[in-house]
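Model the whole thing, not chain by chain.
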Amino acid sequence: MTDIIHRVGIKAPISEVYKALASVEGVASWWTRSTTGNSAVGKTIRVQFNSKEGKEIGSMDMLVKALEQDKKVHWHFTGGPEEWIGTDAVFNLHAEGDHTIVLFGHRNWKEAVEFTAHCSMKWAIFLLSLKNLVETGEGSPSPDDIKIDNWN
Amino acid sequence: MTDIIHRVGIKAPISEVYKALASVEGVASWWTRSTTGNSAVGKTIRVQFNSKEGKEIGSMDMLVKALEQDKKVHWHFTGGPEEWIGTDAVFNLHAEGDHTIVLFGHRNWKEAVEFTAHCSMKWAIFLLSLKNLVETGEGSPSPDDIKIDNWN
């Protein structure tokens, strides 16, 4: 099994970071504008990625596996690219001084392939978007995300 | 063993990307301005990180283990944070259409710790700096790098 892991620190109260992770509106403001579904535990959120011209590039369905107020958000991917199905994204939060620390893991990849390396880089871009959203009020969700290679 | 892996695509000839990775001047233009030493195979490069006020934050020594023109740069870390010693950074290059694809790995971490997650995020930031350097002529090497948490 292979994991992508990242650490970011956000200068904001933990409750604001949690809100951006635990709600459909929050996710739509840093990951992809086309986020729909229900963010309650046991329900499914769909994230869709479009080109700037509005053409669909891809989508994922994720089951909200666990929510712990101001502590943890856990998604389990049930639809999307083959490599993502069965993987988990987990955000663990804690406070350190004036920062909220996000320990992020996209865990349980079957193997480390070139697409994993692409996704690792994209997660970093989206976590930066999350940081900017909470700190400044403005994220860069898809399709306004930074493009990092010829895949996206 | 744990690996950090990232993929970036740079709209530029492969030779320009290689030059930015295989020379002291190149590394100083995207990773840290304070890069010194000798970039020949078997020699050692030192990268030092300073605060904006000029105070040293940390440094690493890396042995240039392999250089393959327009294909590969391989560093082996011999000094620096304890977790880095004995690890390897490898950049594999290939062309795809008008992009040079960089497959990056910071390999052979003894374990995946919180500092690994921090470094994964920072490598993404510096690879973005490399991309910007080669595409636009301007990177953001330390101390002008994007800060991502309370550690750096």
